[in-house]
Amino acid sequence: MSTRGVVYVHSSPSAVCPHVEWAISGTLGTRVDLKWTAQPAAPGQLRAECMWSAPAGTGAKLAAGLKAWPMLRFEVTEEPSAGVDGERFCYVPGLGLWRGRTSANGDIVVGEDQLRALVATCRAGEQLAHKLDELLASSWDEALEPFRHAGDGAPVTWLHRVG
């Protein structure tokens, strides 16, 4: 079962860029040569993005490979496929990796079990609001938004898994 997704490397030091390409190449089984451009939101950093097509679950493998470099800011998306929810992964230095399920239109899906656990453990409205913000990746979105806008109109590389 194949699906598609996007890797957004929002910021990377130039010395790490070849390692990012190697990590993506190793996961997809094909040589990756990204088009790196300046990241205006972080002077001296570079950004790149690529669309990929591979088996379901590849998004998690890509995110696991990229988080080896804690100075990166990145997002990995995986579209839903037959019997498999979509996913989004966000990484921000200082916040770490966030993972969430997504619907067909890209909204974050919060499961019944997650909501029941919150209600059972949160004792005050403010605590509940904070935990919901965590489930919805609010801190990651806030940290990444300037980097997302700075990448509007940047070139995109298309990749397909070999085999």
TrEMBL record:
One Pfam family this sequence matches: DUF3145
Lineage: superkingdom: Bacteria
Protein name: DUF3145 domain-containing protein
Organismal lineage: Bacteria, Bacillati, Actinomycetota, Actinomycetes, Pseudonocardiales
